[in-house]
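Mods, move this if it's the wrong board.
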Amino acid sequence: MMNLSFSSGRRSVTNAMADAAIRTSADVPESDHGAAPFERDELVSYSAHGIGRIDRIGTQDVGGHKLRVIEVRFPANQLTLRIPVASAHSSGLRRLVSRDLIDEALAVIVARPSIKRGNWTQRKRMLDEKLASGQVMQLAEVVRDLRHHAGNDNGSFSERSLFLAALERLAAELALLMTWDAAFAQAHLLELLKTAQETPASCG
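Not the wrong board. Structure tokens:
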């Protein structure tokens, strides 16, 4: 496994985990193919856990190997991850998005939903992959395609869970960019979705 995770009860790291991290890191240049390096105290987004803050960047002895790692703390779920510097970008760690990209994402969530044919298992797998990517535009697509759950507690539990997870991740990035409270950012997104749902009916 490439990402070495620790919670408040620090988990031991096996030699096998360390060897896998070393092998992965050895295949990628330290700058992760020219991407700008991360910095201490920087707010970042990680595909699996959302918004976190870099607490430390340094060398760690992992299973007898010296490995340069980025330590990212996620206060919302009391989790700390240590990610090899060499593969940080390719593993899903990224900087927060720009205003232009957020604007594009907001345009996506109010666009016409993409109706996919096929069974729910296939659709769920596709939506899960988009959510797991942590990429803002893919999060926006999940919100758009499941927006019938906005303000609606009925329907499929699994669909609603995916919708809320994507909505919360998108709202967290919007809140940080706009210096809004997270709850206000989420309410703003829900209002946009409500308007988008009402507009087709009013246009008749």
